[in-house]
Amino acid sequence: MAVQEQVYGFFIPSMTLIGIGASKQIPEKIRDLGGSKPLLVTDKGVVAVGICKQVTDLLDAASMPYVIYDETVPNPTDKNVHDGVEIFRKNGCDSLITLGGGSSHDCGKGIALIVSNGGKIHDYEGVDKASKPLMPYLAVNTTAGTASEMTRFAVITDTSRHVKMAIADWRITPGIAIDDPVLMVGMPPALTAATGMDALTHAVEAFVSTIATPMTDACAVESIKLVFKYLRKAVANGQDLVAREGMCFAQYLGGMAFNNASLGYVHAMAHQLGGFYNLPHGECNALLLPHVEQFNLIANVEKFAEMATIMGEDTTGMSPRKAAEVAIDAIRQLSADVGIPATLVELGKRYGKEVKAEDIPTMTANAQKDICKFTNPRNATDDEIAAIYAGAL
């Protein structure tokens, strides 16, 4: 905590519904927010597996008109956002429902920013650039990882610069967030693993953030506990509703932590991998997490030692430094258990991409400009960031 004048904020949606059957309240809650004709922002995958129909059936039963925009892509782009704005305006929509994981929510936040404030999405890169409140906005989550359904953050790819634009603005926090594990049972193991490790990254980075508070620590601690308790089970058996619900709470608590304590170099660096190669955000985070935290360890040995105990490791009789190393090892083991690739080269091959050492200087320079870096517990030079990328390669 600060040793000089410092005011801490705490941002969450006005209402959150978590649990089996929570999605049944979607029509009622969009009306409570003042909406009558929402734009439903989602992606082709959510449509293909039938989750979108589950939601539109609810809207149809409630006689609520809606328009679907399902062109969101992983690592949503400025074009996604501007196309969605055109559809919103053309069809006379007055509210927003985002349905999916982080991509759909981030795209929807971008659409809402422009509809409500004007301009282009590029105008909002940075912190608190909006001046007007958003339209009624309800976010329905279908993954357990990004927590974008409840945060004030959005990340949009600038297709001209091949850079992920980080947007942090308290006005884009959804009015209501819904997490229903029933909507998550069809999530495949690889996506369950990637999003679950994303949730862990949020909690870990927030826990050692330079602006962590007792409130964010409480959220981060419980999030880490729940990820280590339930992620392996959710990956092993997607129909396990107890594990799915456990991961709903884990990712939401991780969101509460980083939404207010922010993040660090894992995200600053992962954003570059996503923007440069269009690699999945969760897996990039998972792969970089142990590398970055090994670098960060000396900045807060005590918290890393505490983390090992939170993860369920027995550190009896160990020095704080040894216990801290155990926490890093536990992260590596969990990542391996749920099938995250061990290297960036391997990750690239999984998605038909070639991660090249020659791109590291450009990614390093962009990572140093990312807003997530500012709360990392240890300052890093360009050479140190480049070395972390190279070590993960």
Which structural traits does this protein have?
globular, alpha/beta, three-stranded mixed β-sheet, 15 helices, six-stranded parallel β-sheet, 393 residues
Task: Write up this protein.
With 393 residues, the protein is α/β, with parallel strands linked by helices. Helices cover 50% and strands 11% of the residues. It has 15 helices and nine strands. The strands form two sheets. The chain has a six-stranded parallel β-sheet, sandwiched between helices. It has a three-stranded mixed β-sheet with strand order 5-8-7. The longest helix is centred in the middle third of the chain and has 23 residues, at 214-236. It is globular, with a radius of gyration of 20 Å.
How many strands, what sense, and barrel or not for the largest sheet?
A: 6 strands, parallel
User: How many extended strands?
Assistant: 9
Shape: globular
- Across the major sheet, the strand order is 1-9-6-4-2-3
Q: So how many helices? A: 15
**Overall mean pLDDT:** 95
Q: Could you list the spans in which at least 5 consecutive residues all have pLDDT below 50?
A: none
